[in-house]
Design brief:
The two termini are 35 Å apart. It contains 14 helices and 14 strands. The longest helix has 37 residues. The strands form three sheets. It has a six-stranded mixed β-barrel with strand order 5-6-11-8-10-9. The chain has a two-stranded antiparallel sheet with strand order 2-3. It has a two-stranded antiparallel ribbon with strand order 4-12. It folds into two domains: 176 residues, no CATH class; 170 residues, no CATH class. Helix content is 53%, strand content 18%. A hairpin with a 2-residue loop joins strand 2 and strand 3. By secondary structure, it is of the alpha+beta class. Helix 1 packs across helix 12 and helix 2 crosses helix 12.
Length: 401
């Protein structure tokens, strides 16, 4: 134990005499560890962000979209070539299926919106009263439209928090005000809570407006829907309801013309894509670790040459080959560990800055991997120089000039 302490103390003393060389040698490892840790932190943050978005949705929900979207747990990108949209007949079919307690059709309208302070183009989602529950939308002020509003085709609207502040100055000021959509006036009855700039499917709900789909028939006379969402009585009925929906829709569509998707399936497919992408990026960043390791090996070879006489004297005084080998191996490990710790420190600062606009974070496993990899690089690339130093003959190296 004392021998190891002496070896590491000796290595530290040597580094303190060559601070600039020590830092420059560790720089490759520093950059590599920084890049790998930051990318891993971003990957973890992205996974958590996606998970949080799906957790706000009801577990007992299903989505019907045109075309074959998922196959074997991955996206296919196939879109229906027939109509690409559902209609009111499909909506009524869903309402008749057992154990479905709510159906939320979805239609879009992009048009000019005029408020108190602003006039600009925006997007409106037309759906049913079930939409807020299925998509995890919460109301900040006011209320969401209800079943009565849908059945009576009431010209009421719920707006995102960003729309409220941009068009009316504040959330409170927006309630009860009129907003004009394509020359049709709607009364604002509610403002949604901010979802932090994103929602399931890539929608930024803070910038959207929501109105009853029946009222939306003013702009959608064909009664076509981009998507149909259903709320099932409870999770135990999910499989049965999927089968019942498929059976009914196959009477009208071919199998490849529609998909019935669970939120968990979407989450699994999305996270698998991002996991592969993140793995590729981490692998690319790891190249700098390889370069850093080669740099350490080169500098250790130079160090062996610079300290040949010292090695000869130590061997002549009784130092074993293993002592010399451990000395240079310890220096190599310390060099890479210094780079690893500095890289981890800079990565932590980078992640702290990123947290203000993205939910990145570093977990314990990432820290262990970072320090473990940097130490492993020191051992791997330090073995050859250490071996060379240990195998030098005492008599020859003492006479070396």
């Amino acid at each position: 134990m004392k021998n190891f302490i002496f070896i590491f103390k000796s290595a530290i003393e040597d580094f303190s005499r060559n601070k600039l060389r020590t830092f420059l040698t560790s720089l490759g490892i520093l950059i590599g560890i920084f890049a790998v840790v930051v990318l891993m932190a971003l990957g973890l943050g992205l996974k958590k962000y996606i998970s949080d978005q799906f957790e706000t949705m009801g577990k007992n929900s299903l989505f019907l979209v045109p075309g074959r979207v998922l196959s074997g747990g991955s996206f296919t990108g196939s879109v229906s070539s027939v109509s690409g949209r559902f209609d009111d007949r499909d909506l009524q079919t869903l309402k008749k299926i057992n154990n479905i307690i709510g159906v939320a059709p979805l239609a879009f309208k992009s048009t000019k919106i005029k408020g108190l302070l602003k006039e600009d183009y925006g997007d409106i989602m037309f759906s049913s009263e079930t939409f807020a529950d299925i998509m995890g939308l919460e109301i900040d002020t006011g209320r969401f439209f209800d079943k009565s509003d849908v059945s009576k085709k009431t010209k009421v609207i719920v707006i995102g928090s960003k729309i409220a502040t941009d068009y009316y100055g504040s959330i409170e000021e927006a309630i009860g005000k009129k907003i004009t959509i394509d020359n049709v006036k709607f009364t604002i009855i509610g403002v949604t809570k901010s979802k932090g700039g994103g929602g399931m499917g890539g929608f930024d709900y803070d910038k959207y407006l929501f109105a009853p789909y029946t009222t939306g028939f003013i702009f959608n006379p064909d009664k076509r829907f981009f998507r149909l969402s259903v709320k099932v009585k409870n999770e135990n009925y999910i499989s049965q309801v999927k089968e019942d929906i498929k059976k009914e829709f196959l009477k009208r569509y071919k199998d490849e013309e529609f998909s019935i998707v669970e939120p968990t399936e979407l989450m699994s497919a999305i996270t698998s894509i991002f996991s592969v992408l993140n793995l590729i990026l981490v692998a690319i960043a790891a190249i700098s670790l390889l370069v850093g390791g080669i740099g350490i090996m080169n500098i250790m070879y130079v160090t062996v040459s610079d300290r040949i006489k010292e090695i000869g004297i130590r061997r002549a005084l009784g130092a074993r080959k293993s002592d010399i080998s451990y000395q240079f191996l310890a220096e190599s490990v310390l060099l890479s560990s210094i780079g690893g710790l500095l890289g981890l420190g800079f990565a932590y600062l980078g992640v702290l800055l990123a947290e203000s606009f993205f939910p990145a974070y570093i977990d314990l496993l990432t820290v262990i991997i970072a320090l473990g990899v940097s130490s492993a690089i020191g051992i791997t690339f330090g073995v050859f120089p250490a071996r060379k130093a240990a195998n030098l003959e005492p008599v020859e190296v003492i006479r070396y000039e």
